[in-house]
Structures are given as C-alpha cells and as structure tokens.
Design a protein that fits this description.
By secondary structure, this protein is of the alpha/beta class. The protein is built from 13 helices and 18 strands. It binds 2-keto-3-deoxygluconate and magnesium ion.
C-alpha cells in the first residue's frame, strides 16, 4: 500500500481549517488536521512545498518510520508549524491503517478502556447572571463538566467570553465573528481579574451545588505568585483544574504555584513536544496535560506523551476548542477511549457550516463522547462543500495593559 498523493485542503466553514488528504494506490484515503489558528497558511505551505513530495511512493503502513523521517530528517525539530505538519501526516496514516484493518482507530491503540470520554463545555457570560444562564444551557445540552469564564468589571472585552449571550455563551469572538485583517487588541488588568474570579465561582457553586466539575482557563496571564494566590482563593470551590495559569514555556514557574495551592493544574495547549513537559512531569507540577493531537505530532506524538505522563500519575485533558478541526477532535476521542490515564476531553461544538464540510460520526450522550465504531477516524471530508468556504485571514487578539504594554494572554 503506497502513498499515491498528499493534498492540502484549506477551507473556512465558519473558521479556517487546514486538512491533509493522503490517498493510497489502492484507493484508501486518510485525513489529518494541520490547523494552526492564525498561522494556517504556514503549515499548508510546509506540507505542500516540503512534505508532500517526500510522501509520494512511500509505504503508507510505515507510520513510525514516516514520523521519524519527518521529525529527525528535517534537522529543524519541534515547533508549532513542523509538529502540526507531522501531526497531519501521522493522523492521516493512522486513519488509513485503521480503514485497511476495518476497525475504528481506538481498536488499534489497544481497544477501549472506558465506555466514553467525559467532556467539558465552555460556559461564559459578560456578567454573572449571563454566565449562570450559560451554565444552565450547557447542562441542558448534556454537559456534565463545565469551564467557567466571565467578563471582568472595568474591562471592555475578555478573550474566552462570548460577546453575546446568543448560543448559550459558547462561542469565542475570534471564531469568525470579528474576522478582520489585523488582530483585535484587548486591554487587560490582572488585579481586577484576581479580585473578581473567586466571586464568580462562589456564585456558580451557590447556584449549582458542590458536585458539578468546574474548570477555569487563565490563558497564561498571571505571574507565578499571582497564580499561586488565585489557586489558593479558588480552593473552597473545588475546581477540576486551573488551566494555563502562567506563560506555559516557563516550566519552573509551576514549582512556585504548586508550593502554595492544592487547586489542580493543567497546561500545554501551546506545547508541541514531550520535551516541553519534562520538568512538569518529573516533578509532578501539573495534574493534566493539555496538548492536542493536531499540535503535538499526531496520534503517535500524543500517545508517547500520554504514556510518559501516565508514569507520573498525570492524566489527559486534550485540547478541543473549535480551531481543532473535527478530524483532530476525532483523533483525540480515539486516544481518550484507549489510554488508561484519561482525565477529561474539551468539547466546544463546531459550527453547522464546519459540520457540512467535515462529516463526523462521533456521539455525545449523557456527557460522554464516543468516536463511533466506523473504521478509521470516522470523519469524511466533503470537498465540494469545502470549496464553498474560501480562506480569509483571522487572528487571535493581542492583549495590552492600560499603559499599552503588550501582555500575555
Ligand atoms: O487557538 C487558540 C485557542 O485554541 C485557545 O485559546 C483555546 O484556550 C483555549 C482552550 O482552552 O480551548
Ligand atoms: Mg486554554
């Protein structure tokens, strides 16, 4: 079974996605997600210009060898663009192998360790009443774990908080709604945030009781000592996790946070290699790893990372916002089902236009996701539908302090 072609599809059904389609000489196709939000075309070029010519004629069944060939062979290792490209090839080859075997991918990864993957959704509100409505809407949709984000008094807009209550507060504003050629700029104030967030969790616990797993994303905005304080202040509200408290690339920052708080910590959506985690795992500084299949070298890369985390009793929390395409999401679900150290799966539902292009088979029942038993990943790509949604540039926002200094987010 040889690779006959490797084609890159860039499409924008509600938001931009880059998909690799590998076809074999016996007519099987495999899909891989290569979407890097705000930098999509760089991965498309890496794949088209530098990877596709290397793939043609290769044995499609040699997944590990192809991974090593692209990773080691390029000399320039790691990095979000390279690893998204490697991920797309790897995922597409796993899709093909599982289709050839006539099995859902999770069977090739060792079979199911559970009946489904507990998913969390994104509730948000510009103020507390709007947030409580959004939590209610998520519970009605079947979610059994919920991420909580709100507006901050004094700040005009906050990333991760929907600018309208329509849709139950689920959507980010940079999906396509505020698509523009340049990134939007938001103003940030960490002291205002630190004062406000504990009052939000107090209100959510008062309304929904102690049992509901609640999560929160700090989007890398705090210093270690600020994060330590927030972790302590949130202890009474028993969070499932506090995510991305500090800029993720500074692994040793987590030591200070860990010394001060028992609030569980999650990090890693911007990481692209197991090497980004070595201090975090060996010193048990986090509780959940957040990498996506799409950004961490595919099914092979993420499986290696999750196995390494498992040795330290650290669990998975695979990144699953809407900029992970349904292909990346399906790959995550197969891993969620198979690995022993599963923790939780992020699940923001894709827009209807996205689901016109990507035909999914995964299910969401009683708060649990299942990848389905369709052979392969269980996702189809409708090329005619994809052509109806041409690429348009869209960027994440840039954060500044009141005096204009660029800030982390
Ligand atoms: O592309 C960036 C988004 O995927 C990210 O900001 C979403 O933080 C996020 C999350 O936890 O889903
Ligand atoms: Mg996040």
């Amino acid at each position: 079974m040889r690779i006959a072609s490797a084609d890159v599809v860039v499409t924008s059904p509600a938001r931009n996605f880059v998909t690799l389609v590998i076809t074999t000489d016996d007519g099987l196709t495999g899909l891989g997600d290569a979407t890097l939000n705000g930098r999509e075309l760089s991965v498309a070029s890496y794949l088209r210009d530098h990877v596709a010519p290397l793939l043609e004629g290769r044995d499609a069944s040699r997944i590990e060898d192809t991974w090593q060939y692209l990773y080691r062979g390029a000399y320039w290792r790691r990095g979000p663009v390279t690893m998204a490209a490697v991920a797309a090839v790897d995922t597409a080859l796993w899709d093909i192998k599982a289709k050839a075997a006539g099995m859902p991918l999770y069977q090739l990864l060792g079979g199911a360790s559970r009946t489904g993957a507990l998913a969390y959704g994104h509730a948000s509100g510009r103020d507390v009443p709007e947030l409580l409505d959004s939590v209610r809407a998520h519970l009605e949709r079947g979610y059994r774990a919920i991420r909580v984000q709100t507006g901050i008094p004094g700040l005009d807009s906050v990333y991760g908080v929907a600018s309208s209550a329509a849709g139950g507060g689920e959507r980010y504003d940079y999906e396509p709604a505020r698509r523009r050629p340049l990134p939007a700029e938001e103003t940030w104030d960490t002291r205002a945030y630190l004062r406000h967030v504990p009052t939000v969790f107090e209100a959510v616990r008062a309304e929904f009781g102690p049992g509901l797993p609640l999560l929160h994303d700090g989007h890398h905005r705090m210093t270690p000592i600020q994060a330590a304080r927030l972790g302590k202040d949130l202890e009474p509200y028993d969070l499932f996790w506090l995510e991305d408290a500090t800029p993720a690339e500074d692994q040793t920052a987590l030591r200070l946070i860990r010394q001060h708080t028992t609030t569980p910590l999650a990090i890693g959506e911007v990481f692209n290699s197991a090497h980004d985690y070595t201090v975090l795992l060996q010193e048990r500084l986090i509780d959940y790893v957040r990498s996506a299949v799409t950004h961490a070298g595919g099914v092979t890369g993420l499986r290696r990372l999750l196995d390494m985390a498992g040795h330290f009793g650290i669990r998975s929390g695979i990144h699953g916002p809407t900029d992970i395409s349904p292909v990346g999401m399906a790959a995550a679900l197969h891993l969620d089902l198979a690995v022993h150290n599963f923790g939780i799966q992020e699940y923001m539902r894709h827009a209807p236009e996205t689901l016109e292009v990507f035909r999914t088979s995964f299910t969401f029942t009683d708060g649990l996701l299942h990848p389905s038993d369709t052979p392969g990943l269980g996702v189809g790509l409708d090329l005619a539908a994809a052509e109806r949604f041409p690429y348009a540039p869209a960027y994440l926002p840039v954060n500044r302090l009141a005096d204009g200094t660029v800030h982390d987010w």
